[in-house]
Automatic annotation (TrEMBL):
<dbReference type="InterPro" id="IPR012094">
    <property type="entry name" value="tRNA_Ile_lys_synt"/>
</dbReference>
<dbReference type="InterPro" id="IPR012795">
    <property type="entry name" value="tRNA_Ile_lys_synt_N"/>
</dbReference>
<protein>
    <recommendedName>
        <fullName>tRNA(Ile)-lysidine synthase</fullName>
        <ecNumber>6.3.4.19</ecNumber>
    </recommendedName>
</protein>
<dbReference type="InterPro" id="IPR015262">
    <property type="entry name" value="tRNA_Ile_lys_synt_subst-bd"/>
</dbReference>
<feature type="binding site">
    <location>
        <begin position="26"/>
        <end position="31"/>
    </location>
    <ligand>
        <name>ATP</name>
    </ligand>
</feature>
<dbReference type="Pfam" id="PF01171">
    <property type="entry name" value="ATP_bind_3"/>
</dbReference>
<dbReference type="Pfam" id="PF11734">
    <property type="entry name" value="TilS_C"/>
</dbReference>
<dbReference type="GO" id="GO:0006400">
    <property type="term" value="P:tRNA modification"/>
</dbReference>
<keyword id="KW-0547">Nucleotide-binding</keyword>
<dbReference type="GO" id="GO:0005737">
    <property type="term" value="C:cytoplasm"/>
</dbReference>
<dbReference type="GO" id="GO:0005524">
    <property type="term" value="F:ATP binding"/>
</dbReference>
<dbReference type="GO" id="GO:0032267">
    <property type="term" value="F:tRNA(Ile)-lysidine synthase activity"/>
</dbReference>
<keyword id="KW-0067">ATP-binding</keyword>
<dbReference type="InterPro" id="IPR012796">
    <property type="entry name" value="Lysidine-tRNA-synth_C"/>
</dbReference>
<dbReference type="InterPro" id="IPR014729">
    <property type="entry name" value="Rossmann-like_a/b/a_fold"/>
</dbReference>
<comment type="similarity">
    <text>Belongs to the tRNA(Ile)-lysidine synthase family.</text>
</comment>
<comment type="function">
    <text>Ligates lysine onto the cytidine present at position 34 of the AUA codon-specific tRNA(Ile) that contains the anticodon CAU, in an ATP-dependent manner. Cytidine is converted to lysidine, thus changing the amino acid specificity of the tRNA from methionine to isoleucine.</text>
</comment>
């Protein structure tokens, strides 16, 4: 099968109807071929929307020239082009490779909407390098499964249509199509681990074992299948451990064997963050956080957040913006988008007659505002005796301390109407409309 037909078949299988194709376009041979293949595919599907996104890291003296050349290639293929500029914190302690990758995917995510597919140019040789890097780190089956052909990404999907194609086949296709591309001088710098493998290690292996790349592909797929099977078998048990804030119950985990407990914790964290803990960190998580003294406030800091304990549950706490100064008007039937990925709040027609979050429309006589600052506020929850400070109510409702200033409060003037997902004040409780917090 030709490379072009392989691309067409792969994209056809993974592109939802009405979805747009976003191309991560660096200008290297892989993404240059992707750009051309996407244009060929569009020739057969004229209604398909394409977008090429180039990320300018500013790490090379040639970065501006690369951007200009990429824009010219996109124009020649009649594909809309967007350039995004990012700056890297080179003092963070992370590798330049990791910083650049994280920044690139963060920018690309902002362009991927529901049903969109992001195309990236990783190929079979890249998969071998990724596998060996995971092996160097001592990764288990999850890490050794390396890169998937497709995976959820932002609001859409990430697709690597060249993942089973060798670098040499990609370059051969580029030559036959008379394509030109950029050569990043940093790709020759063997101080970087991936480049060291590419230039010093993998060629020697391939000379001895010419089918090594294909063997790695099989091993990676087997590891991925094993992980999928574990997830399928353990997902019901994990879901039974979770509360409404996605906290995982320590007592339930403690009744599992250490092997099952560790796998459940990995699965739980995988749903929260891409930076999974090492084996040592996993032991620290259990011994120093889950099993800490009852009066302790343990906190394990990882690369992209931290793990904390509250009321016999473990919680993943991602880096958070301060939203206490944020406020916005709320009208009936008009959703409000909350800040910092906190979801959406809607006051609409009641769908559940017995819901705790239903209100009396006649009592809502003044403009309403959504806010997050509970300081100084009091409320009298429907069905309970007496008024309490919100600070005290949050404790009684067992809301983790880091969630208390991230839970939407509905106000009318200086009165608390409701706290989302917790209670409605007795003066506003009814059955006409319902407050829904879609997280």
């Amino acid at each position: 099968m030709s490379l072009a037909q392989h691309f067409i078949d792969t994209l056809r299988c993974h592109l939802p109807d009405g979805g747009r194709v976003v191309i991560g376009f660096s200008g290297g041979v892989d993404s240059r071929v992707l750009l051309h293949l996407a244009a060929l595919y569009r020739a057969q599907h004229p209604d398909l929307e394409l977008l090429a996104v180039h990320v300018h890291h500013g790490l090379s003296q040639y970065a501006d020239q690369w951007l200009e050349q990429c824009e010219l290639w996109a124009k020649a293929e009649q594909i809309p082009f967007v350039a995004e500029y990012v700056s890297l914190d080179l003092e963070s302690g992370d590798s330049i490779e990791q910083l650049a990758r994280d920044a690139r995917y963060q920018v690309l995510a902002s362009h991927v909407n529901t049903d969109d597919v992001l195309l990236t140019g990783q190929h079979l040789d890249d998969q071998t390098e990724t596998f060996l890097l995971a092996l160097k780190r001592g990764s288990g089956p999850k890490g050794l499964s390396s890169m998937a052909l497709s995976a959820p990404f932002a609001s859409g999907k990430l697709l690597r249509p060249l993942l089973d194609v060798s670098r040499s086949d990609i370059e051969h296709f580029a030559h036959t199509q008379q394509l030109t591309w950029l050569e990043d001088d940093s790709n020759q710098d063997t101080r970087f681990d991936r480049n060291f493998l590419r230039h010093k290690v993998v060629p020697v292996i391939n000379k001895r074992w010419p089918s090594f790349n294909k063997a790695v592909r099989r091993s990676a797929r087997l590891c991925a299948k094993q992980e999928q099977l574990l997830a399928e078998l353990l997902k019901p048990e994990l879901e039974a451990c979770l509360n409404s804030f996605q906290g995982v119950e320590i007592d339930t985990l403690s009744r599992s064997s250490p092997l099952k407990r560790d796998q459940l914790l990995r699965m739980w964290l995988e749903a929260q963050t891409s930076a999974l803990p090492s084996e040592i960190q996993l032991q620290q998580l259990w011994n120093d956080v889950a099993l800490a003294k009852p009066d302790a406030n343990p906190n394990l800091v990882l690369a992209s957040g931290s793990i904390r304990r509250f009321k016999s549950h473990l919680y993943w706490v991602a880096p958070q913006e301060d939203v206490t100064q944020w406020s916005k008007s709320l009208t009936i039937e008009t959703p409000v988008l909350l800040p910092d990925r906190l979801g959406e709040l809607t006051l609409g027609n009641s769908s559940e007659k017995n819901s705790l979050m239903t209100l009396n429309r006649a009592a809502l006589t003044e403009p309403m505002v959504v806010m997050f600052e509970p300081e100084g506020l009091s409320a009298h929850p429907h069905g309970r005796a007496g008024s309490r400070k919100l600070k005290k109510l949050f404790q009684e409702y067992q809301i983790p301390s880091w969630q208390r200033r991230r839970t939407p409060i509905l106000m009318m003037g200086d009165k608390v109407v409701a706290v989302a997902n917790l209670f409605v004040d007795k003066d506003f409780y009814g059955s006409d409309c319902e407050l829904v917090w879609d997280k």
